[in-house]
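[#protein-structures] MJ: dropping Bacterial Ig-like domain-containing protein here for a structure pass
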Amino acid sequence: MNQILNASYRYTDDPRRGYSGTSPQARNGFAEIAIDGQPPYTVKVDAEGRWSWTPPADWTPGEHIVSVRMIDAAGNIGDPAQFIQVVDYTAPDAPRLLNMYDDQGDITGSFDAGRMTDDRRPTLTGVAEKGTVVYLKEGDTVIGSAQADAITGIWTLEPDADLSDGTHQLTLVAVETFNGKLREGEPSAPFELLIGRDGSAATVISHAVDDAGPVTGSLLSGALTDDATPQLHGSAPAGSTVFVQYRNASGEWVDGGAAQIDGTRWSWTPPAELEAGSWEFRAGQEGSWSDSFTLDIAFAGSDALHATLTHATDDFGPVTGTLLSGALTDDTTPTLSGRGEANSTVVVRYGAFGEFTHSAVVTVGADSNWSFTPPALEYGVWSFAAQAQGDSQWSDIFELVLMPGGQ
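AK: finished. structure tokens for Bacterial Ig-like domain-containing protein:
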């Protein structure tokens, strides 16, 4: 009599995962399903040899030995088919960071999160669920990855590209493939990498915080905000005094006083509301200032807060690059990009031959940039426009001509 099931391992996250099969030799007989050596469940085989079984209760997580055998109408018992049923309902746990190592410059060795290093690609080591892929992320951007060892769970990685000077807020997340599907776990607690010169007293402006108006959140350099008193944050060596200066696009540096220090972290808020326009900030001491940090400030209801659609990007075919409105392209999934108020949402509408038939909602980043890639479009003339959600004004129409071998 044929064996119905012969796989050595099966995987499921279905709490009521059942089995079925067809055994012509067992027509009008029975199928017996035994779990972990317990008394078997018995189900009827129909006249076509078909049978199916669903467990009466949820599977418990873990590995279960399953044995299936067929009994024909005359009582003849077939050889059992055995396999391991792996039941797992949960995504992998957050990876643990065990060590960071600097192998560049005069000062090398292990260092703690928040301590300055001149190694722009430090080596990170930790442990995660065995066989999972560990991703190093800055915000939502993956900047490095490695696979945890299948036996020990140990992983080692370096960032894929050099990290810029300043503070980097990073997290780790593990991803596994289970039952043919990718499952991403919860991220680790954030940790900081402070990139600078060994032994330097560099002061860094890492970000600002907008806590005014309907849209709030963290701001990166270059962001557009309606907060006239954005709070700046950064890092400096412990025990130092941090001063902040600021100026508008055409002005002289204005002393903003000393920042509040908490260990190696500092914060500062302008002493008075800033006027609308472009502002530049720096922190540190005379002769040792940080890199400039810029913000564009616009008041609620002003034209500056309207969403813009500035360009598209073609990354398909032999000719790639930036596209302006009216361009020809063979990329049927061009990426549209623009700007808006940091952390806001933007509606993108689009359609062929002058009719807007589709729309999507995208989130503006902390740097005020947004991007959107549509599903594959047919060849033809396509129009796009963007609007800040809740606003009444659309951006200028942006057109692309999609055709084979465009550009």
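MJ: nice. Residues 1-6 have pLDDT under 50 and may be disordered.
AK: one more thing. The two ends are 65 Å apart (CA to CA).
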